[in-house]
Amino acid sequence: GQCVNVCPTGALVERQDWMEVADVIKSGKKKVVAITSPSVRVGLGEEFGMEAGSYVEKQMVAALRSVGVNYVFDTTFAADLTIMEEASELIDRIQNKKPLPQFTSCCPAWIKFVETYYPQLLPNISSSKSPISMFAPTIKTWFAKKEGIAPEDIYIVAITPCTAKKFEITREEFHDAANYHHTQGYRDYDKVVTTKELANWLRAENLDLTSVGESDYDSLMPRGSGAGVIFGNTGGVMEAAVRSAYYFLTNEQPGDDLLKLEAIRGLAGVREASVTIADIPVRVAVVHGTDNARKFIAHMEETKTHYDFVEVMTCPGGCIGGGGQPKHIGEDMQDIRKKRIASLYDKDASMSLRNSHDNPHIKAVYEEFYGTPLSTLAEALLHTTYHERKDLGEDPAVYAKAFEADST
Ligand code: SF4
């Protein structure tokens, strides 16, 4: 008798972050906006018995609408925004002799890792925020005004593959929308819910992804380009940024060689390539996993090898292998990661919109709001700074735990 209500995974015993979101929805006091990262749509299906890597974007959006979320946006849109800023920043660093290589910044566990163990590299970290951290202040400013909703009445939940994003949204400096509105009343973000937590939420509401139907994202910021989609896998941010950096510097669209940058695909711990953009040789590297990151930094510092742009993601395979993604005990995780990665690359290849800079909705947000990449407003809402964590009296051991959680 006693076992009847016990959830086999233990997931329903403890309170999870989705429960707060469900409470906010029930209260009806706020407009709830959900944004979904690329990796969630190739992981969530596995929780409902589907084949690894199944692409369940439309079912996931339908499920979020069924639990009562008011707006659903695609984080790939914000990934395009990140690329516009990060590629522009790379060009600025190369042309104006600022610190190189530029390291990517969208992985919060990597940022904490540098802040804690490699503070000498802080000037090299891209100041461009991660997609989710660009999206929230854009929603609580531009979107809020367009929809006529007071920003304090908007509650944003990011659905991510990532447990470290729960730290990221609590970074003390992320009050940019409130700063814009000259208030201190709210943070940019309200909650992060992982893929696994979303699955628990759906089960708690008796929803099954296989029968929930299909729905599309809301129309104002409906989707990203293929470049935004591949953000979920190791090497994706690099490829996406190279496509747009090429366009910004040459005014020509990237060709097939750049649309499929073969040398940096795959699952080797470190991959490198040289690309020539407007006669400038650009040396790039892609690293995944904290062990590989340590080795790469040691190699770079010892050999003084010059790199222009380095992508680091701490999870194996990138975000598709994030700590909040479905786990398959006893199964070949590497095979599952490959299937999720293939699903994102296939989606990119099947899209007519491949480049962040071609996304008409990205053009609209710059025309109507941000002006140009690296404008004063873009710097205020879409960029940030980093701090050596020792200065803040934070315990590296705590973050070491976070890395471990995300590296399994
Ligand atoms: Fe999060 Fe892992 Fe992706 Fe980093 S690589 S952003 S820790 S899911």
Strand arrangement within the widest β-sheet reads 2-1-4-5
Number of domains: 1
Helix percent reads 40-55%
Give the tally of β-strands: 8
* Mean of all residue-level pLDDT scores: 90
Tell me the span between the first and last alpha carbons.
Answer: 35 Å
CATH topology: Rossmann fold
What report would you give on this structure?
The chain has helices at 17-27, 57-66, 75-95, 108-117, 131-147, 165-168, 176-180, 195-204, 226-229, 236-250, 256-259, 290-303, 333-350, 360-370, 376-382, 396-407; strands at 31-36, 71-74, 102-103, 154-160, 191-194, 270-277, 280-288, 309-313. It is α/β, with parallel strands linked by helices and 408 residues long. It has a single domain (17-407), classed as Rossmann fold (3-Layer(aba) Sandwich), CATH 3.40.50.1780. The strands form 2 sheets. The chain has a 4-stranded parallel β-sheet, sandwiched between helices. Strands 3-8-7-6 form a 4-stranded mixed β-sheet, sandwiched between helices. Helix 12 (290-303) links the parallel strand 7 and strand 8. The chain starts with 16 loop residues before the first helix and ends with a helix. The structure holds iron/sulfur cluster. Residues 107-109, 161-162, 164-165, 313-315, 318-319, 322, 406 line the site of iron/sulfur cluster (SF4).
